[in-house]
From TrEMBL, chains A, B:
Cellular component, GO annotation: tripartite ATP-independent periplasmic transporter complex
PANTHER family, A to Z: EXTRACYTOPLASMIC SOLUTE RECEPTOR PROTEIN (PTHR33376:SF5), PTHR33376
The protein, known as: Monocarboxylate 2-oxoacid-binding periplasmic protein
Database matches in InterPro entries: DctP_fam (IPR018389), SBP_TakP-like (IPR026289), TRAP_DctP_sf (IPR038404)
Pfam families xref list: DctP (PF03480)
UniProt-recorded Gene Ontology molecular function terms: metal ion binding
Residues annotated for Na(+) binding in this entry: 230
Biological source species: Microbulbifer aggregans
Residue sites binding substrate per the record: 171, 192, 229, 255
Keyword vocabulary terms for this entry: Metal-binding, Signal
Length: 378, 378
């Protein structure tokens, strides 16, 4: 799952720089004024919000969460809070979402925190850490392990309130036109893989590239890249990668349980009466769970179609390769922590929670998965 | 996690029989009347609901879900729907919850569907099936795999609407004072284990017994039973089983991802305006996710305390034993399906979803858990 750019990176970068740097300063009551009015006669205030997203409108799975959220809020508020959802590029480009919500051009956004790692390296902890927590564990950390409070602190200077906005579950390692049998095969591998995963690949001797979603198919088809990761079977089938790639690798070591985000302009949120604030929070929680449920229910059907109908070759990355990537990943996390105190602080909390959750999941979730695969006796 | 009876089983049984058999017939608008009134001046109707539970008031984890639910509903509705939570035995006994909500003595209940298996064997599919789906998969099945619709159909004749009401995650196999090294050791084992798990144990040569929560500690201490299952570290530590049992076995083959339930009297629900109905649904979804998040975050800390501080001996059930229990479990499910068309229909849907979800989880969640445990290279 990655950023989808429709605008040249330089313009995008400048825009992001502008809105992120100055966003928090220019928010004013006036800028949010039109979102708020009194319903005639009832005495109850009504609100009209804009929700900008980093996905194309109604993108399967990822893009359905903000639609569901908006619908639920409208139902629960009996129309007092109406939220219009904009796909990427409709109101602001995908990578302009953070800035637009920060400055109040839109009241809400839906995307993924690791898109903002250029400004906030620590934001990556709130989407996915390679070899880190899976979806169930991320939700445990955010909602009962202190994670959400750290996220709120990180975004507070930008006048933003973050909330978990869905999860894809464990992703796939990606589509490859080159077999990976040893760490040697990573050398020279040109792969589209963003974030920490990309840094890990670079240090393993490969070349991580950033290619907008719209150009990805052609890049893989023409050999500009050897491989690309995307999300998982449900999204990948729709994309058509099976037509142009030989191997479908697992497991998704780089994104073990990516969490998406809702971001809300803090000034806009504070203007809502308490009942509408509670409604917004519950609708986000509802959408957060519903996306994982949807991926859980739909990934396998898509995988079956990919394998049975389209003859996709499923392959597991060798243990040697995974262990090598894991070592590099730890090095990078520790180096980044040494340079960035904010990153270091959240990394420490993240690791502490990992130490809290992993041993129990070893004897519960993991031991159970193994049990289920036991051959029957007789 | 089991039923907690404070009333003698015979009275309970008679009560349950009465309320379940006649409940649907006696519901009337009148019986729900006092729950509904108009707030003075505002023109908006307000509602007062009772929510009866199968747990003691504020029981950790399980009992906090209905409290959270009630609080969220009150906030979101700005006090228009107030819900008072009653612990087991305060208004009706634990096992009287289904009947009380069915007949309208309370508008809502919180418990677990498999408690009603005496009346509705198929209800067990909506809590836990041995060797079946884990929490993430159950949520996928219920919310995007057709499971909830089957559950609604099952409860409709009782004037009840069911919703998922939290999950414990994979449970522990239980506390034992007898080592289990082979299938031979199951013979003569006296264990408190309800539901399908208990039937499996009986057929394996053991004796499944039902003992109310309040008598469990003494029964295990005095050797009346050799073993008991309960929930997992977070709840078990509070119970004090480590003081009287030698071994703590895993994995929880009998309850791989128990889902709890909210049940709502259909007539009461239909009296709510659309916004309050949507609020009730979202608050249930919120509580459903929050409980799993809480268990995920807290189980491991409790496990660590049990092992490090109290010297508990963790043991894994041998593969031979698990495979034997799995074979018996399949036999029982198939025999029950042959006798009960309703059970058969839901069993078929459940198996179909298993076939949809298990292969992808094998290469995603499970492969990822394994990857995380790889030794680092060098």
């Amino acid at each position: 799952m990655k950023k989808i750019n429709w605008y040249p990176p330089i313009i995008l970068g400048l825009l992001a720089l502008l809105v992120i740097t100055f966003g928090a300063l220019v928010v004013s009551r006036a800028s949010l004024g039109p979102a708020q009015q009194f319903a005639e006669g009832t005495g109850q205030e009504t609100f009209q919000w804009k929700l900008v997203t980093t996905w194309p409108k109604n993108f399967p799975g990822l893009g359905s969460a903000p639609e569901r959220f908006a619908k639920k809020v409208e139902e629960m508020s009996a129309g007092r809070l109406k939220i219009k959802v904009y796909g990427a590029g409709e109101l602001v480009p995908a990578m302009g979402v953070f800035g637009a919500v920060s400055e109040g051009a839109a009241q809400m956004g839906h995307g993924a925190a690791y898109y903002w790692k250029g400004k906030l390296p620590a934001a990556q902890f709130f989407t996915a850490v390679p070899f880190g927590l899976n979806a169930q564990e991320m939700n445990g950390w955010l909602h009962h392990g202190g994670g959400l409070e750290l996220w709120e602190e990180l975004y507070a200077p930008f006048n933003l309130i973050p909330m978990a906005g869905g999860s894809t579950g464990v992703q796939m390692a990606g589509w490859f036109n080159k077999e990976i049998n040893s760490v040697e095969d990573l050398k020279g591998l040109k792969m589209r893989i963003p974030g920490l995963g990309g840094e890990v690949l670079n240090r393993a001797g490969g070349t991580a590239v950033t290619i907008p979603g719209g150009e990805l198919y052609t890049a893989l088809q023409t050999g500009v890249i050897d491989a690309t990761e995307w999300v998982g079977p449900y999204n990948d089938l729709a994309f058509g990668f099976h037509q142009i790639a030989e191997y479908y690798y697992y497991p998704g070591w780089h994104e073990p349980g990516s969490i998406l985000e809702f971001i809300i302009n803090k000034s806009a949120f504070e203007k809502l009466p308490g009942d509408l604030q509670a409604i917004v929070r519950a609708a986000a929680r509802d959408a957060n769970q519903d996306m994982l449920d949807e991926y859980t229910a739909r990934n396998n059907r898509a995988l079956k179609e990919l394998v049975d109908k389209h003859g996709v070759q499923l392959k597991r990355l060798p243990d040697e390769v995974l262990a090598h990537l894991k070592t590099i990943n730890t090095e990078i996390l520790e180096e980044t922590a040494a340079e960035d105190p904010q990153f270091a602080r959240i990394y420490e909390a993240f690791r502490e929670f990992e130490a809290q959750v992993i041993p129990y999941h070893r004897i519960s979730e993991e031991a159970y998965y193994q049990t289920r695969l036991l051959e029957l006796d007789q």
